[in-house]
């Protein structure tokens, strides 16, 4: 009975109320110029975020990645991370306009692999990370004619989920839910010579341990297995925030796939290579990365917090 009341409350009270607030916020932000909305988000993010309890995880993560980091530098990165995330949220209703090639807001480096993928008759996987405004990547690619299918966790509120999916799908980008149905959908995409977009920098308990900043980090290996199984084109994509709501989108040349004859070893090697590339991006501009992920084992965070 209690569960029935809770379900009724969520469906008819909580979810509509949450959705109304989200619609109001997004609608208001939509009316603002892109740079104004982004600037407000950045101001709120760097003003509020560093004071939140969860920022302790970011500080501990920075101690793990950069042992002995100066406190001033650590705090600069934490503020920069929150500035970036505040901007991501407030840029959300403007993603369609930001990602449009005519906006001049995305500087493209090495567009050839995107053009080649559009012409190719084989599947591919674009590997990226939670850097800059990563939501721009599939939308920008779609504007260039390459439809990427990306994995994303659906919001708990189904009404909010509809709006998020609409925004993420602006220009033709497609979304797969994380989980079993999403995995099956990914196989279907590759079988039809489609392209996947995968963010590989989150902890994956069912993954494999690969080095990340000198420490083993559990990392998803399934995308690499799919790449090898379908002999897919594999490229890495970095989206870097330049200034305000402007970005640099860099695409690598296709990676050479390992082919030792040992499928497990090859998948591990490909995952290791891509993770090493992500590390170089984070080292180059650590404030662009989402340090609130618990990327390493809990014991490392406890040790960093006690130092």
Computed Rg: 20 Å
What is the total tally of β strands? 9
Main β-sheet, in a few words?
7 strands, mixed
Q: Averaging pLDDT over every residue, what do you get?
A: 88
* Biggest β-sheet: strands ordered side by side in the sheet: 1-9-8-2-5-3-4
Structural summary, described in words:
- This protein has 307 residues and is of the alpha/beta class.
- The protein has a single domain, classed as Glycerol-3-phosphate (1)-acyltransferase, CATH 3.40.1130.
- It has helices at residues 2-31, 34-48, 55-65, 71-91, 95-98, 112-119, 136-143, 158-168, 180-191, 222-229, 263-284, 298-306; strands spanning 106-109, 124-128, 148-152, 174-177, 195-199, 208-212, 215-219, 233-241, 247-251.
- The strands form two sheets. A seven-stranded mixed sheet has the order 1-9-8-2-5-3-4, sandwiched between helices. A two-stranded antiparallel ribbon has the order 6-7.
- Helix 1 (2-31) runs parallel beside helix 8 (158-168), helix 2 crosses helix 4 (71-91) and helix 3 (55-65) crosses helix 12 (298-306).
- The model has no long low-confidence stretch (mean pLDDT 88).
Question: Could you give a quick summary of the protein structure above?
Answer:
The protein has helices spanning 2-31, 34-48, 55-65, 71-91, 95-98, 112-119, 136-143, 158-168, 180-191, 222-229, 263-284, 298-306, and strands spanning 106-109, 124-128, 148-152, 174-177, 195-199, 208-212, 215-219, 233-241, 247-251. It is an alpha/beta fold and 307 residues long. The chain is globular, with a radius of gyration of 20 Å.
């Amino acid at each position: 009975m209690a569960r029935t009341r809770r379900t009724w409350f969520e469906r008819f009270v909580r979810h509509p109320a949450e959705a109304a607030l989200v619609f109001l916020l997004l609608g208001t932000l939509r009316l603002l110029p892109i740079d104004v909305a982004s600037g407000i988000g950045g101001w709120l993010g760097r003003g509020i975020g560093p004071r939140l309890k969860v920022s302790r995880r970011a500080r501990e993560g920075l101690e793990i990645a950069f042992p002995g980091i100066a406190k001033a530098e650590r705090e600069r990165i934490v503020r920069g991370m929150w500035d970036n995330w505040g901007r991501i949220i407030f840029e959300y209703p403007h993603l369609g306009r930001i990602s449009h090639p005519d906006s001049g807001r995305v500087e493209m480096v090495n567009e050839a692999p995107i053009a080649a993928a559009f012409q190719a008759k084989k599947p591919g996987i674009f590997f990226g990370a939670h850097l800059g405004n990563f939501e721009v990547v599939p939308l920008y690619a779609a504007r260039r004619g390459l439809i990427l299918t990306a994995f994303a966790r659906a919001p708990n509120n189904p009404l909010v989920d509809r709006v998020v999916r609409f925004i993420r799908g602006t220009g033709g980008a497609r979304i797969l839910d994380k989980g079993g149905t999403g995995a099956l959908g990914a196989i279907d995409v590759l079988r039809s010579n489609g392209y996947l977009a995968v963010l590989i920098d989150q902890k994956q308990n069912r993954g494999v341990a690969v080095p990340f900043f000198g420490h083993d980090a559990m990392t998803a290996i399934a995308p690499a297995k799919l790449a090898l199984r379908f002999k897919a084109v594999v490229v890495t994509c970095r989206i870097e925030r330049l200034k305000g709501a402007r970005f640099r989108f860099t695409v690598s040349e296709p990676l050479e796939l390992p082919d030792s004859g040992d499928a497990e070893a090859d998948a591990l090697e490909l995952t290791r290579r891509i993770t090493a590339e992500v590390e170089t991006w984070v080292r180059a501009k650590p404030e662009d990365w989402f340090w609130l992920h618990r990327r390493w084992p809990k014991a490392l965070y406890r040790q960093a917090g006690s130092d």
